[in-house]
Amino acid sequence: MHILVTGGTGYIGSHTCVELLASGYRVTVIDNLSNSKQEALHRVSEITGCELDFVRTDLRDRAVLEALFRDRDFDAVVHFAGLKAVGESTQIPLEYYENNIGGTLTLCKAMTEARVKKIVFSSSATVYGDPASVPIREDFPICPTNPYGRSKRFIEEILQDLYRSDGAWNIVLLRYFNPVGAHRSGRIGEDPDGIPNNLLPFIAQVAIGKLPRLRVFGDDYATPDGTGVRDYIHVTDLARGHLKALEKLATDPGVVTYNLGTGRGYSVLEMVRAFEQTSGRSIPFEIVGRRLGDIAICYADPTLARTELDWTTDFGIEEMIRDTWRWQSRNPEGYE
Questions:
Q1: At residue 54, what are phi and psi to the nearest 5 degrees?
Q2: Kind of pairing, strands 53-56 and 178-180?
Q3: Can the peptide bond before residue 141 be classed as cis, meaning omega within 30 degrees of 0?
Q4: Distance in angstroms (rounded) separating the CA atoms of residues 256 and 334
Q5: pLDDT in tens, 287-304
């Protein structure tokens, strides 16, 4: 099978490309490299011993996208491309809506014309907003609290409407919780531009000496230690979930939705202590104000993915931190 991966040079996309190639899929990646490096794909090929195709383009460039679908025999699409920072989305919401929703519309139009009607969409647990209880099931109310989460929810609804208009479509919506870690080789990992938005790369950059201290956003949440609790999932486990989703598409499921998480929450300070223990490095931190759009507790009920996709996680918090530290210590400047 030939898979088009949008946003495939990014953190989750590159790890998914590793799993796809290792499983015998042909892969073409499109990415505008706005927040990623092409070097990631060179390393993907190095890890797997397999080549993949890369086309540098913005997903909103309809002419390029239509030509790509005319010239290639894609069987399905795995759609990662999009802006992804919660805090940033509250500052530049129009860019998030234009990029994330506009790019998806262009993609779906090109897929429709090419009669490629299978897609796995990279959604997010942020669509649930601040849940009334945890763990979170797929049938919980949807109420995102920030533009990033709303852009993901709008796209979910667009894809559901697409299926209602044409039952030939098959769509898997994957709601991620908090991806962390890196490939066990230490060759690919998360390489954020500037100060990281996500917790673990921020901690890792403090540990390596690139940043002076961690900023902890709020210590007055209704959690055991006052800091936010999240469901952290190893990026390799997450990547394998996409292969299971592609297998599900082959059964003509219509539109289906799955949480990808571990079902276990860790607080910010628990993650700091675990990182210190694994790396042997001290992590100085300071408490600052809450970030707009953040919530107190968020972790998954992954039962549906386990029963319908035959997907479970293999890696625990020790492996997540070990692999993060291996990546950061071997690549202190990321892919540069």
A1: -130, 130
A2: unpaired
A3: no
A4: 36
A5: 999 988 789 999 999 999
Q: Enter the DSSP assignment of 300.
A: B
Q: Where are the domains of the chain?
A: 2-180+232-261
Q: Is the dihedral of CA 100, 101, 103, 108 positive or negative?
A: positive
> Distance (Å, rounded) from C-alpha 206 to C-alpha 311?
33
Question: Whole-angstrom Cα distance, residue 25 to residue 45?
Answer: 13
The helix (run of H) or strand (run of E) holding residue 208 is helix 199-208
E strand intervals along 198-268: 214-217, 229-230, 232-234, 255-260, 266-267
**Residue with structure tokens 């202190």?**
332
Using one digit for the tens of pLDDT, what is the confidence trace for 212-232? 999 999 999 999 999 999 999
CATH number, domain 2-180+232-261: 3.40.50.720
In angstroms, the CA 187 to CA 14 distance is: 11
Q: Are 138 and 173 in contact (CB under 8 A)?
A: no
Whose tokens are 């539109």? That residue is 255
- Reading the block at residue 196, the tokens are 């990281």
- Residue 331's alpha-carbon distances to 7, 37, 182, 214, in angstroms, are 22, 14, 12, 19
pTM recorded for the entire structure: 0.96
pLDDT at 265: 97
Sequence-ordered list of residues with C-beta below 8 angstroms from that of 31, at least 6 positions apart, any chain: 6, 7, 8, 9, 10, 13, 38, 54, 56, 57, 81
Q: What burial class does residue 72 get, using C-beta atoms within 10 Å of its C-beta: 0-12 exposed, 13-18 middle, 19+ buried?
A: middle
Return the amino acid letter for 206. V
For residue 250 the two structure tokens come to 């082959």
If phi > 0 it is left, if psi is from -120 to 50 it is alpha, else beta; for residue 31 that is beta
Catalytic residues: 148
Q: Which residues on adjacent β-strands are paired with residue 178?
A: 232
